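Section: Multi-chain targets

For targets with more than one molecule, the full set of components is provided together so that the structure can be written out for the assembly as a whole rather than chain by chain. Components appear in the order listed by the source. The example entry contains two components.
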Amino acid sequence: MKKRILAFAVLACWCAALLCGCAPSAKKAASDTGAPEIAGLTYESTMQLQYANCFQIYRYEGGYDLIAVSDGRNYLVIPEGGKTPRGADGYIILQKPLDSIYLAATSAMSLFCALDRLSRVKLSGAKQEDWYIPAAADAMAAGTLVYAGKYSEPDYELLMSSGCDLAIESTMILHTPEVQEKIEELGIPVFIDRSSYESHPLGRTEWFRLYGVLTDAEDEADALFGKQAEIVQSLSDFQNTEKTVAFFYVTNSGTVSVRKSSDYLAAMIELAGGRYIFKDLGDPTTATSGVTMTMEEFYAAARDADYLIYNAAIDNPLGTVDELLQKSSLFADFKAVKEGNVWCTGKYLYQATDVLGSMIQDIHTMLTGDGSQTELTFIHKLS
Amino acid sequence: MPTKESDEARLRQAGRRRRARYALVFLILLLAFCAITVLNINSGSVRISLPEIARILFRRTGDAAQVSIIWKIRLPRIFMAAILGGALALSGFLLQTFFGNPIAGPFVLGISSGAKMAVALTMIWFLERAGNASSAALIAAAFVGALLSTGFVLLLSRRVASMSVLLVGGIMIGYICSALTDFLVTFADDANIVNLHGWSLGSFSGMTWDNVAAAGTIVAVALALVFALSKPIGAYQLGEAYAQSMGVSVRRFRVLLILLSSVLSACVTAFAGPISFVGIAVPHLVKRGLHTARPLVVIPATFLGGAVFCMFCDLIARTAFAPTELNISTVSSVFGAPVVIFMMLRRSGRD
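Its structure, encoded as tokens over all components, is:
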């Protein structure tokens, strides 16, 4: 009996510790309840978002903004020279100007570059050779952007000595909570970019508007986002080609990694006028974006796909169909291989959040083109 | 023919020489500890002069960023490297005593595998569903996982008398935990796999004073208990029969030894992840240096040696390729593995 009580106590302690970390914010998500009342501030308006549903921005008089993110974290953005309102307890304070940012969320870099606010980012979570955005790589070469360690092992000393005023992290930081806690202990606010959780590809691009608020570039953000939205809207009257597309890569162990059906890449294929080959793959309620399957399972499902797009985000980009066949000779049986409809992404795709509309345009061109175009912005045809 | 007086003189001389050797080893360890502490405080991405460091340490004044760097970044990390390094080495010494095998490490009983399994479960299952978890949750998970493995070994030890069978049992438990982890990883996304791999290589990065307080308390209590067991450990080193004749309850003593060793290594794994070779290499080096296995001398020297070794490895880990930081096991293996190879060669040579 004593042993059972002891075992129960240990289990209870573990669960309690987990719950401490998992407990949602005391404040209800602002998107559910409307603009939160903050003592000392007067609510003005709410930013009207078109596609994004992972954040909401509430405007208050005097240039104050409240960014409510779907993970329950609420960021109160205080204008330059503004004072922290008395009702700010429980909010993460971001004091403008934010001009010494540590950017570990690589997908946000393209947004800063497009907004012409790269100068606000002083510290990078990726090395020069890992940037596929030329402006970022150039800034690192010039020394205006400095590598400060990756998200899981940042150089805390560099962060402190550079006067870092904001750390922008991807959701990868959730796997290393001790790093987030340490950065916050040093007095640096941590902003977690959840754009990868947007189900609509333009939802990711609409994060432009959030970074526009943080860097005082709202007009530029609206214009840039509008341009990408226009590309997608121009395709809205287009009747779907009903051509099927498989988006995948082969892992080192020989299995195949594909995107689940609710992922934004599947949505991009649909928006471009194609059909993602997997209809109900993966649990849409979980955070995982990929699904790993056996080659047999992939063969059965994608053998008759009209197009194959090889995802070179982790693997190296392929140049020829032979390179694909070296990964598995089974690909020779695929309809897309026989008809020469095999494409491959470049490394740039996952950092180019600013032009996802163009990626949709690329897939549209792939599906409807006459075959003469083999080198598009994000994808190229295998020879 | 030697007289009684000359025998006594020789014994006294041998005793003096032994004490001098102990004093020398402790002096070297203390000097190394001080030197590496100073080097650690003085090394980092940000250059801070020694007078400035002294002012920050003793008066807590100076540039605010530099004060934070010393007090919030460097010092907690140094303390943790010292505490956990000492704990790991001590844990290794206890297990080597228990198994009578100089290459038995603190993770031989599946402790790190158990901890890794629990961390994988927390990362993959809970993060997937709950969205986030605190560092306390991961620490608690690692601790619980490590102690669960120990629990199985203790259950096994009640039924098995042979040390080698128990050792094999511990290794098998490690395999089972690793298999379960691999099973979880099969269904995990890339982010979880990458982070789990990073965790399993260990790091002292990002330590806080709260971590120091928690780990310090656990290790201090365990260290005091190990000290209290010095006499039975000494008796056990001379054989189970001798220990029994000295009034040691061998069964209870073995359970206590496993439990203390496990708590120490579980504490290290929980806060810094598994760290290779420290537990095997340091006790051996210390015993060689002291020319004795007497627990009263070896226990503090091993703790100090472990602290020095880990602080040295951490210094290299964070400065060699700064701002990229090496995992602590990468460094400790480079310095620890040759020692283990040397030990094995010597042992096989003797055999």
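The interface with chain B takes residues 10, 13-14, 17-18, 20-22, 71, 147-150, 152-158, 160-161, 163, 171-172, 174-179, 181-182, 185-187, 286-290, 292, 314 of chain A (CB under 8 Å).
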